[in-house]
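Supplementary Data S3. Sequence and structure tokens for construct A.
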Amino acid sequence: MRTLKFLTMALLSGLLVLSCDSTSTKKSNDFSKGAVDSVSKYIGYSLASMVKQSDFGALNHRVVMKAYKEMMARTEDPTQDEMMEWNNEITSYMQKKSMMEGERNLEEGMAFLEENKDREGVITLPSGLQYKVIREGSDVRAKETDTVEVHYVGTLIDGTEFDSSYSRNEPAKFPLNRVIPAWTEGMQLVGEGGKIILYVPSNLGYGENGAGGIIGPNSTLIFEVEVNKIFPVVE
């Protein structure tokens, strides 16, 4: 689990800070105040970055700093039991947070798709995938085993952009049988040179696990895709 990875790193970093602090008094004269201040700043940045990447949501930073100061003031290292307790508590919190977020995203996604299905030009397939063709393209259409080259932008239903080949100024190329189910199905609905919008229910996207920091669990997604080129499998 990604969270546990960051938690482990954070705990190790905390131990490193304790270790550095225990020796700094003895060898403080080895470094200038500027050097100590500099590394202190970067340690703070590093710890804050790991906390942000772990996606805890809103935290009480006053309590965080109080606990940090308490731990720094201790003369003895934390025990294995203590560290296990910390890890268990944080993991339990993150699991509950993910479950609540997933339930909320699922409800909001279903409401969005229910309203979206009646919009002009939107077609709903038996799988639950919704789509709207902006430009039909040619008669050449991809099969599930083909590779496509596309330009696309992906957003959440609130408009938050999470990925874009346009921003990278480079089209993406991938085989259709190695992507999320919505892309496998959706890219067969428009011809080469065409443009399509895919409205993706969570079960055809990244499901309950989500993907990365922006795509949360059970997120409904929107992809606007231009099919530049289709590369058929040579049989």
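Construct B, processed identically:
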Amino acid sequence: MAISRKQEERALSAEEWTLVQNSYHPTVQDLSDAELRDLLKTLRERRDRAQSEANRKRREMRGKAAPKGARPAAKDDGTRVKLGVLARSMRRLNGEHERRRQLAARIELVDNARHALALKKEKTAERPADFNSRRAHAGMRAVESSKSKSLIRPMERGRQRKAAAVAQAKRDAR
């Protein structure tokens, strides 16, 4: 169920509301990696605290735990909404963190590939040609494969294998 921002603001404290606001789209992309990490850590702590509070209230309502105050909790609607808001915020932040991690990994992969290519070019440029090495000057001749091509489609082979397995299972069940 979707929760409006007004309902989110009502369920959270002022400090938690500012944390949750930072997890929305335009703001979260302006955060640095260190700020994102700190926000994730803080929000995770708040979410865990809200989760334990919701669990405690639920246990009080069922009569499994002693009440924290003078009388046991009657409802846990507010804590459940608060937990949901913080969990959705965590999901958004985790998604942004993962997106940044994948972007950094892609950039690193490209850098490594360029570095490897530069090393390869450098190595081939400095190495002289081997004397009397065997090379295919005029090009190599293609050798035809001696294996005959299968005329059965792989899907058909899989279908038959599965049918045989089902038949065997039926025989074994008797």
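Residues 77-126 form the longest helix (50 residues). The mean pLDDT is 87.
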